[in-house]
Amino acid sequence: MAIHAVIMAGGAGTRFWPASRAKTPKQLLPLGADPVEPLLAATVRRLAPLIPPANVTIATGASLVDATARVLPDVPRAQLLAEPVPRNTAPCIGWATATILRRDPEALIVVLPSDHYIPDEAGFLRVVGRALEGAKLGHLTTIGIVPTRPETGYGYIEVGGAFQGDLLRVERFVEKPSHERAEEFLREGKHLWNAGMFFFQGRVMMEAIEAHMPELGRGLYAIEAAAARGEEAKVLAEVFPTLPSVSIDHGVMEKASGLAVVKGDFGWNDVGSWAVVYDLSAKDSEKNVRPDRSLSLDSSGNMIVAKRSFVVTIGVHNLVIVETDDALLVCARDHSQAVGKAVQSLEAAGLDVLL
Amino acid sequence: MAIHAVIMAGGAGTRFWPASRAKTPKQLLPLGADPVEPLLAATVRRLAPLIPPANVTIATGASLVDATARVLPDVPRAQLLAEPVPRNTAPCIGWATATILRRDPEALIVVLPSDHYIPDEAGFLRVVGRALEGAKLGHLTTIGIVPTRPETGYGYIEVGGAFQGDLLRVERFVEKPSHERAEEFLREGKHLWNAGMFFFQGRVMMEAIEAHMPELGRGLYAIEAAAARGEEAKVLAEVFPTLPSVSIDHGVMEKASGLAVVKGDFGWNDVGSWAVVYDLSAKDSEKNVRPDRSLSLDSSGNMIVAKRSFVVTIGVHNLVIVETDDALLVCARDHSQAVGKAVQSLEAAGLDVLL
Hints:
The structure is a homodimer of 355-residue chains.
Chain A: E1 3-8, H1 39-47, E2 56-61, H2 65-71, E3 80-83, H3 89-103, E4 108-113, H4 121-136, E5 141-145, E6 156-164, E7 167-174, H5 179-188, E8 191-201, H6 202-212, H7 214-228, H8 232-239, H9 248-253, E9 260-264, H10 274-280, E10 294-297, E11 303-306, E12 310-314, E13 319-323, E14 327-332, H11 339-348
Parallel strand pairs in A: 1-2, 1-4, 2-3, 5-9, 10-12, 11-13
Antiparallel strand pairs in A: 4-8, 5-8, 6-7, 6-8, 7-9, 13-14
């Protein structure tokens, strides 16, 4: 069975405004430890030893296809799938899977988010290899990240006994917990973070969709039939917007049986805010992350991103300062999770040019 | 005796970087309560009821003449004096006085700085009127600002008895004091701030210069003789750089006798830092001074100046944020007196394009 990858790259990422904009969402920005490589490019490069770009499919939005292609010169353009509208992950993964099965009915498929950071790339590939073993055995398989803090922002996976070795049973998927429950999870050690990584035989996933999301199954069948007639574009535009907007977790994984999970412990980071980018970045002696064209006087703990201006800071600490051609953000680092809210306010105020 | 004004407008004003630059120094910026009117334009307008622009002479630097003319359309271009090099206030006032005496040997002259802010304009004109009475009587006269705090950044004038009414004797000029002495001054009430405003008959000032700064007197005589031959420009370029670089305070006022002073109590402000501009400006409900094109979330006490960018602040307080086309300053408001130091660092680093 040949291995294929589906990278979900439709995200908006308003949390990184003003660097992230509608036309340059989070996954197209260099927000990992490397100040140049976009997260999406890193995701494809990281996978290359196991899955060459020729076997990578990118699921993104129609408005992002060109920008995405520029970041991924080695991925065949035909494998950039443009969703007419965002319909959450179940239709995304279903359509991508069906598309891959056309070329390779025996396809073994890895589904990954496009905008996460993984420092231990060798460790990551080892765990992916184990998860693929589970998929080969017919399991819908996922990677569960070993928690390092009582995080309330993620869904969790409760782990059961072992199928074999480190291929474990999934007892159940758990919604984002309260702080108390999250601390219990951390103590008990039976729960892992759901990082949205899935491994399966394409055929098995299609069967699971038909069984648990028949409406989606019918829609995908209609698109496939149209593709066979050479009318995919036309029917896709009609049908895709009608597909149920449901996540693969809710729509399939939580209902399917025989789910497997492999523990992941490779420093996974979903890069959720400017504060996280600060943590990942190289700092000067005063713990500032700043460009060469800057002067820092009596200032520490600041994160400065500025392409155009020379930046001078005096007597300021723990700020995030991000300047683009038409916008400037000055934010307390410990408030950087509120940036998304600010973008919503701009949207509400009708300042679309800034989005 | 006709009344003439000399406005000293040669300042650099690095304290307002990045708004103030070599080509747009402090006096050309709108740093008073009016967010549009440059301080220099306000100085000339404020004086107009007493001295029309036709009688105003501006002493500035050669590189600033054009920018200065744009700000003062009503001042005759011939009355913009371009100093070949800055030589402090004694040569500046001496040359301007000699120039005015050519047109009006009986001239009564008011010398004012170009970059101060005065809220009570009617009160200011009343005090100027009284100081001119002193000048008519032949005194070298100054205005002493009634202190409102133990300021250590200004020189002081010790007041003696009265010549007549509120025209008082100057006992002596006092250097910038220690904090202790400044507090004594404030308690005793015998000391006033030296705001660099001078009132005199042109002839009297020339005699005082000849008596106390003979070298300057000779230089000015050479320039005058050349002017009579129509060779002023040539000789000015040769002679002016050789004049002693001394302030009128040290060179003349501290040595002359019969000096008079009038108390000024009209809310004078020398606009010494961004923090002062913040104090003078209109604020929103969270005490922010900010442009329409900004969004302020959980932020207070900030001063934002940005022509190009839309500015979003989140969770930040008491900052000065100033953005120009090529530079950005983010400074704690209570550190804004250090901005000049930052500019010196840029100069030392050879970043002249930013000066």
